[in-house]
Design a protein that fits this description.
alpha+beta, ten-stranded mixed sheet, 56% helix, single chain, 853 residues, 22 strands
Length: 853
């Protein structure tokens, strides 16, 4: 001990840098794995935080300095309530607001227009006022003037003085760009115009979206909100929501809408970090196993057990520190690039019309740095403890490598992990997130990897016994199986890398493919018509009048026409709006138009039927056979829940009712969409031509069912582009781990190959042994990875997805993709074994065994 204790720091540094110099590629692979995992997780966090913060700030900017807001449970309400609020003795200013999303006549998308009273809004939301051009101050009241934010001007390619054409019904509304919005946020695409002109132009006379209230000095906002809510509930039951715009309710609604998407992306990014943890384990385990005799010599010379433990942990921590630092820096750069090129929603559509900028958050950076470091320490913990526990007298002897891995073959910890995973898979969500489902997946991976030593030993010993019984078995194959059967611990290190990467790839591949196929089947069911017609490609200002509906139904070539009206309604102030869908549906056969799931209930004779999406069951507690109250027609309408349908279009929930019930309750005869069925002998192309010939035909947007499905699947693939990228990264890291494990083990066996060459085994036969070993190991890893991945995919499909997004799907494994990746893994393992073997055999048999002389 006296020979080593005076310079422990010098010794630790010498051992650390010596190991790095001896095997730089393995260290770089481990660092890269940790860096990629940290970078992806940190980048996704920064992107989501920037998009959410900017979206919330944009929403708040529309509210300005309002103390209280009164909004309808329906999108629009009668403006008669405005006089009551404006005359309230505790209200200083009441500002009426009308918000619409106006469809564009010659482009996809919609422009958000805010109608305000310029004189009243100036006291509450001065940022929303328009800035007219010099000498045209009255443009703020003009009936043809609209003010655009800088982002909207850039998006539409307009300048002050130009005209824009929007859609109202099937008619065009031409407006003059009178100037810019005073202080719109960067990237916020909005337009502002006089509320009276907006009501007239877009046929919404006497209707408002909300009323912003500025209270008199000294009025308690919370007390006023509570009192006003009670007064309005008594006078107008179920019609209004009273809230404080800056009390966090709106932010909570926005967070609820995208939270599951954000959490799932973050967990998926951490998959790469988990694979990195195993790569650190593989690197450190092989390093400790190769240096057992060196460590034993150091122990004999006086190095204490604790010093050796700290040394191995230091080596793993060094990988984690470098990798985590690179990951934090790379994550920030990646987030900046993603926000610049793809926007804040990464294709998911949760944060439209904003342009967020990445902001470095030290706390989040520290958290992800800690994750990277913690993963590295966790990966090297078992090898460090094994190095410290080893007896110097035993470890210093050659050939004790396999004994160091005996503890890896313990079965009971893995069985405990698998049992806990099975229990947690059936646990309910926590905060509406499948946290127990994620934990079950992690335990399945840990348990599966932990069983690999025992499974490898049983499998290869059985194969060895079969090979020995057969007299025709090539000697090379027998030698390969003997090696695998008698060194299962070393084999399991490489097997674990294959298992981790392939099982996760299988699980994610099955989940994404199942979702895509389910979406395609769903659209095929709910889109039975030949042609679908609407007045604009976006927005809520387009509609078809009763006369136009009649004209469509009587168009030559139309066998049958069905009509549909959609609108949002609020069922809870702290949740996003639910989509109400009123359509021509037969209560006796709703399954012809809806993708029904679960039980159904016969509709009582006097009841109004409704069919709710799966999200209504989870989020609002709706149940088949019970009543559901909806805000419709300025009151509360009761419906009977007749069934549940699958709706992939509306994550926040949707309700389908009969169009006749909607019209009876609201008095509105207009519809937003039409589905046309071609008569016998007619085609969708001929039908489109006949509809286009109608007087209002040029104003219509038409698509066939096939076109809608193709466009929807394109959006699906764009939304899952990040998932595909993360999945590819996880596979690449797994392949790197497999290559590192095989090459390290092959190079460490140079003396073994030298002895084989001495007893007459040719160079080609040694390479054959390595090729068989690599192939058998990977085939076993692929088989086990597929089984484990299939179980994980069941949790993803039947637990994580329903608890995250509140819809179900079928199970559709993508066999060609899985088979291709499996073949690539096997080929890569064999190639790595051959390349490493050629390098290990390059020194000649005498040089390889010189240490034994």
């Amino acid at each position: 001990m006296s020979g080593l204790s005076p310079h422990p720091t010098l010794l630790a540094r010498w051992l650390l840098f010596g190991e790095w110099r001896a095997h730089p590629v393995r260290a770089l692979l481990a660092i890269a794995a940790i860096a990629v995992g940290v970078a992806m997780g940190f980048a996704i966090h920064l992107i989501n935080a920037a998009a959410f913060n900017e979206f919330s700030a944009a929403v708040k900017s529309l509210s300005g300095q309002a103390d209280v807001q009164v909004a309808g449970r329906e999108p629009l309400f009668d403006e008669a309530v405005y006089a009551r609020l404006a005359a309230h003795p505790e209200v200083a200013v009441a500002s009426p607001v009308l918000e619409l999303s106006a469809g564009l006549t010659h482009a996809q998308g919609a422009l958000r227009i805010v109608g305000i009273d310029a004189f009243r809004a100036g006291f509450i939301a001065p940022d929303l006022t328009g800035v007219p051009q010099e000498g045209r101050m009255l443009d703020v009241l003009a009936d043809d003037a609209v003010f655009l934010s800088p982002a909207a001007l850039a998006w539409l390619g307009k300048r002050p003085g130009d005209s824009i054409v929007l859609r109202a019904g099937t008619a065009d509304v031409r407006l003059r760009v009178a100037g810019q919005v005073a202080r719109a946020r960067a990237g916020q695409r909005i337009a502002v115009m006089d509320i009276g002109a907006m009501q007239w132009r877009f046929r919404q006379l006497g209707r408002l979206s909300r009323i912003d209230l500025k209270l008199r000095d000294g009025v308690d906002r919370t007390r006023f909100q509570r009192t006003l809510a009670a007064d309005l509930a008594a006078a107008y039951p179920g019609r209004f929501t009273v809230r404080q715009p800056n009390d966090g309710d709106q932010e909570q609604r926005n967070a609820n809408l995208s939270r599951a998407y954000r959490v799932n992306l973050t967990v998926l990014a951490l998959v790469a970090l988990f694979t990195g943890a195993f790569l650190v384990f593989s690197t450190q385990a092989l390093s400790v196993m190769r240096r057992r005799s060196q460590f034993a010599l150091l122990r004999v010379l006086g190095l204490e057990r604790g010093q050796l433990l700290r040394q191995v942990l230091l080596e793993g921590a060094s990988l984690g520190i470098v990798g985590a630092l690179l990951g934090v820096a790379g994550g920030y750069a990646l987030a900046a690039l993603a926000l610049h090129f793809f926007g804040g929603d990464l294709g998911a559509g949760y944060f439209p019309g904003i342009r967020p900028r990445v902001a470095f958050t030290p706390l989040a950076a520290a958290v992800f740095f800690g994750l990277g470091l913690g993963v590295a320490l966790l990966g090297c913990l078992a090898p460090a403890m094994e190095a410290a526990r080893a007896r110097p007298a035993v470890a210093i002897k050659s050939g004790a490598d396999e004994a160091a891995l005996m503890r890896l073959s313990r079965v009971w910890p893995s069985l405990v992990c698998l049992a806990l995973a099975g229990v947690l898979a059936f646990a309910p969500p926590v905060f509406e997130l499948p946290l127990f489902g994620y934990l079950a997946i992690a335990l399945l991976l840990v348990g599966g990897i932990g069983l690999m030593p025992r499974l490898a030993a049983l499998s290869f010993r059985r194969m060895e016994s079969l090979a020995l019984r057969s007299r025709r078995m090539p000697p090379v194959l027998v030698l390969a199986l003997s090696r695998l059967a008698n060194a299962p611990g070393q084999a399991s290190i490489a097997l674990g890398g294959v298992l981790a990467s392939f099982s996760l790839m299988v699980a994610m591949g099955i989940m994404v493919a199942s979702f895509r196929v389910s979406v395609d089947d769903w659209m095929g069911h709910i889109l039975p018509a030949d042609l679908y017609v609407r007045t604009a490609a976006g927005g809520n200002t387009g509609f078809l009048s009763p006369q136009q509906q009649a004209a469509l139904a009587s168009t030559p070539g139309v066998a049958r026409a069905q009509f549909l009206r959609t609108r949002p309604v609020s069922l809870s102030p702290d949740r996003p709006n639910v989509v109400l869908i009123a359509r021509d549906i037969d209560a006796r056969d709703p399954g012809s138009l809806l993708f029904l799931v679960g039980e159904t209930a016969p509709v009582p004779a006097s009841a109004r039927p409704a069919w709710v999406s799966e999200a209504l069951l989870d989020l609002y507690g709706a149940r088949v056979g019970q009543a559901l109250t909806l805000p419709l027609g300025g009151g509360q309408a009761e419906f009977f829940v007749a069934g549940v349908w699958r709706d992939y279009a509306n994550q926040a929930g949707s309700v389908v009712i009969r169009l006749q019930d909607y019209r009876a309750l609201t008095g509105e005869a207009e519809v937003t969409d039409a589905a046309l069925f071609a008569a016998r002998g007619s085609s969708a192309e001929a039908l489109e031509g006949a509809v286009r010939a109608l007087p209002f035909g040029p104003a219509l947007q038409m698509m066939s069912a096939g076109d809608i499905r193709a466009a929807s699947l394109k959006i699906f693939d764009r939304s899952f582009a990040v998932t595909y990228l993360l999945e590819a990264i996880a596979i690449a890291i797994g392949l790197s781990g497999v290559a590192a494990s095989f090459s390290a083990q092959t190079l460490a066996r140079s003396k073994e190959f030298g002895m084989l060459r001495h007893v007459g085994v040719t160079r080609r036969q040694v390479l054959g042994i390595l090729a068989f070993e690599g192939g058998f190991l990977t085939l076993l890893g692929v088989a086990c990875g597929f089984a484990l991945g299939l179980v994980i995919s069941l949790i993803l499909v039947y637990v994580v997805n329903p608890q995250s997004f509140h819809w179900t799907m079928g199970l559709y494994p993508p066999w060609p993709l899985l088979g291709s990746v499996a073949a690539v893994l096997v080929a890569a393992s064999i190639a790595t074994a051959l390349v490493s073997g050629r390098y290990a055999l390059s020194g000649g048999p005498v040089r390889a065994v010189r240490e034994d002389w």
